[in-house]
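Q: Make up one entry.
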Amino acid sequence: MRLRTVDTRTATALAATMALGTALLTACGGDSSASAGGLTTVTLGTGGNIFDLPLKVADANGYFRKQGLKIKYVTLTAATGPSALQAGSVQFLHDSPTGFVTALSKGLPEIALGADGLGNPLGLVVSKKFAQDHDLTASTPAADVAKALADSTAGASSANTKAEAGIFLKSHGVDPTRLKWVSLPSPVADKAALNNHEIDWFVTSEPLPLQIADSGDGVVVATPLTVPEWDATHSGYSQFVVAQKSYATGHADIAGKFVTAVQQGTAYMRTHLADKQDKTVLAVAQKALPGVPAKVLESSLEQVDWPAEASMDAATWNTTTAFIDAIGALPDGSKVTTSDWTNKYLP
C-alpha cells in the first residue's frame, strides 16, 4: 500500500516550503467557486508519483470534464499536503495512509472519500556486484534473498522503507538490527550510493528499483509478488482522496462528482492495464513520469492493485492501520474510525 507510499514522498525542508508556497499561491485559482468554460475548477494536491495515475487517467479520458469539473494540480509533500488542505489552497488531497493517520492524530478534520490504490509497490534492489557475489537473480526465492542480506550494508532514506525492509527480513528469520544501515536523504541518494558501492541494497517504491535493473546497474530481488507482507491483502490501502470534512459537507455535489470520476479512472486502469493494445494508461504514465522506460512503467503499475470501485470498508482500514503500526508509523492512540472515511459521495 503506498504506505509506500510515503516512503518516497519524503522531501527536504526546502522542497516542502517551496511546494507549500506554490499551493498557497494557487489558492484563489483553485477555489471551487470559480468556473472556466462552464466547468467548476477544483485544485487537487498530488505527490507526483506512480499513485497519481488513476487521477491522470480520469482526466485524460474526460471523466472529470463529464462531471463538470476542471482539475488544477499542485504537487505537495507529506509535510505540506495537510496544511494546504486546511488552508483551502487545495480542495482535495491524494493522500497516503501514514499521512492521513498522522493528520488525524493532530486533530485535523479530514475525511477519506474514496480509495484508488491497494498494496505497496516496493522493490528491493541489490547492486550488480552483490548479486554476482551471492548468486542472486530476479527469480531467487525470497528466503534465499533474505539469507544473503543477513551480512550486508543497506541504505535507508526513510523510516518507513527501513521498517518495510525489516518486515521482509524478519519474516525469514533475519534480524534487521544486525545489518549495517546507512542513512541517506532520498531514494535518489540511495541509487547513487548503490552505484558507488557504498551500500549493497535498498528498498523504495517503484519505478526506481526497476529503472536501476533496466539500466543494468542492479537487480530487483524482492517485490510484492514475492513478499506477501507488502501486498494488498497484508498492507491494505495505499492511496485515496481526502477533503476537509466541512468542505465535503458544504460541497457535497462537487465531492460526489470528483470521487465518481476518480472511481471511473481507477476502474479503467484495472480493466485496461493488461490490454497491450490499449496504450491509454501507458501514454498517461509516460507523460506523468517522463524519462521512465515504457516496460518499467508497465511492470511498476502491475504491482499495484487498482480497485474496480473506490468504496472503502472497516476491515481494510483495520488491515491498513495494523500495517502502519507494524512499521512503527502509527501515532500513539491513533485509529481510523467510521467517522474518518465515507462512501456516501460515491455513485
In short: The radius of gyration is 20 Å. The mean pLDDT is 90. The CA atoms of residues 94 and 173 lie 36 Å apart. The longest helix spans residues 252-272.
